[in-house]
Amino acid sequence: MSLTIEQIKAEAMKLPPETRADLADWLLVSVESRESVQAAWDAEIARRIEEIESGKVELIPGEEVFAKIDKKLREAGA
């Protein structure tokens, strides 16, 4: 019996976060080489650093971000 993508995703979501991260890494590398993935991350990191250093983006303290998330979850009844 073949599993559908939706079934695979549902089963994957039952895994602990660290295991899901390992699975995601494995899937990504199965499609692209580890070097191309690392190059893409390096470029993204450089872009974000440039945005921060140039003042193009405003950093928000983590505590503030998590407080907003908690508030939205409480409002949603989660």
Explained architecture:
- The protein has 78 residues and is mostly helical.
- The protein has one domain.
- It has four helices and no strands.
- The longest helix has 21 residues, at 34-54.
- The radius of gyration is 18 Å and the shape is flat.
- The two termini are 35 Å apart.
- 0% of the residues are buried.
- The mean pLDDT is 93.
Summarize the structure.
This protein has about 80 residues and is mostly helical. It has one domain (about 5-75).
Strand and helix map with partners:
Layout: H1 5-12, H2 17-31, H3 34-54, H4 62-76
Rg over CA atoms, rounded to whole Å, is 18 Å
By DSSP, the count of extended strands is: 0
Helix-and-strand structural type: mainly alpha
Order of secondary-structure elements: HHHH
- Provide the number of structural domains: 1
State the end-to-end distance: 35 Å
What portion of residues belong to β-strands?
under 5%
Contiguous runs where pLDDT drops below 50 for at least 5 residues: none
**Number of helices in the DSSP assignment:** 4
Shape: flat
Key phrases:
78 residues, mainly alpha, 0% strand
